[in-house]
Amino acid sequence: MDLNEILSKLHAEMAQKLLDKVRSGEVTAAELNVARQFLKDNNIDSVPKEGSPVANLANELPFTGDDDRPSYN
After folding, report:
1. Which of 28, 39, 43, 53 has the lowest tally of Cβ within 10 angstroms?
2. The dihedral formed by the CA atoms of 72, 51, 29 and 34, expressed in degrees to the nearest 10
3. Which top-level group of life is the source organism from (predicted)?
4. How far from the centroid of its chain's Cα atoms is residue 13's Cα?
5. What percentage of the chain carries pLDDT values higher than 70?
6. Can you tell me the distance from the alpha carbon of 21 to that of 53, in angstroms, rounded to the nearest whole number?
7. How far apart are CA 35 and CA 40, in angstroms?
8. Which of 9, 8, 34 is nearest to 21 (CA)?
9. For 22-56, how does the pLDDT look when each residue is reduced to its tens digit (9 = 90+)?
10. What is the arithmetic mean of pLDDT over 63-68?
């Protein structure tokens, strides 16, 4: 097994373990932060669709949109 194959399998396993932990409902704030950073490090982001859990969360957060990041409120 070459290094690229090992790293690919490690990456996939890490993603699966994080997903399993989040889905279990028994995830800590620190583990959620690891999952968030994993997504960020892999350039995974999204624009929330109306009515989705992410959009609902964004609507509840007290962001004003006064900075350079897009506001979803």
Report:
1. 43
2. -70
3. Bacteria
4. 16
5. 84
6. 18
7. 9
8. 34
9. 999 899 999 999 999 999 999 888 778 899 888 88
10. 61
Give the H/E segment covering residue 50: none
- 53-63 b/e (C-beta count within 10 Å ≥ 16 → b): eebeeeeeeee
Supply 2's token pair: 């070459």
Q: Distance between CA 49 and CA 56 in Å, rounded?
A: 9
State the Cα–Cα distance between residues 63 and 36, nearest whole angstrom: 19
Give the model's pLDDT for residue 63.
63
What angle do the packed helices 29-41 and 3-24 form, to 10 degrees? Answer: 140
H-state helical runs in the chain: 3-24, 29-41, 53-60
User: What does the block give as tokens for 16?
Assistant: 């699966």
Provide the residue ranges of all domains of the chain, joining segments of one domain with +: 3-60
Which residue has tokens 């490090």? 41
